[in-house]
Amino acid sequence: MNPTATGSTTGPTTGTAGYTGITGSPAARRQPHHAPPPVARLAIAPATGVARRTDGVWWPRSADLEAELTELLPALPFDWPRITHATANGALWTPLPTLTLVAGHVIRLRRLPDRPGPPTLCLVAAGLGRWDLRVLPPRTAESDAVRILAGVATGAIPADAPLPGEGPAPRRRERSRAAPPGHPHAVRNR
Predict the structure, then answer these.
(1) Is residue 156 part of a domain?
(2) What is the pTM of this model?
């Protein structure tokens, strides 16, 4: 049996009929190079044993949530379940469709433009949990945004701390974020 004809050879070959490996000119051997995807500008607050209202901070590039979700959702921590719903709170966001497709999954979208307080994004995994992100407006100065993102990631700045020029965050009752007993995410330290 000719191993070259079956494709079981390990090295590049040229001119062998039936072989689909690397052949011919250098241009035929080049693999397409794709630019890396943009990095989601996201900081998740460190896990603690204390319940908190906000799980992290996100600095989107625009107010178009439908477009921004394609960067955000793949950047979420790997132990978060698949997000099925997103609610955008605040007047920052442009109007949204009710459904969008992100990475092959349908996400239900909702926009609450009249909600008081800073813009937030509530991400829900149906039946599994909810995660709230404070949203830094896209026009936030880069130096301020980087400082806030770094502070939230290290725990030095609470994720719901007021931004420069903002009043204090509105008070609301803390809620338990525990997953149902026996669920794989039930052990998550919040």
Answers:
(1) yes
(2) 0.66
Strands 129-135 and 85-89: unpaired
Number of domains into which the chain is organized:
1
Range of the domain at 55: 42-160
Residue 2 is assigned to a structural domain of this protein: no
Q: Is residue 105 part of a domain?
A: yes
pLDDT digits (tens, 9 = 90+) for 107-125: 999 999 888 888 999 999 9
Least Cα distance to 129 among 73, 80, 172 occurs for: 80
185, 79 Cβ separation under 8 angstroms: yes
Q: Within 13 A of 77's CA, how many CA atoms are on the CB side? A: 15
Decide if 88 is inside a domain: yes
User: Any residues with CB less than 8 A from the CB of 50 and at least 6 apart, and which?
Assistant: 190
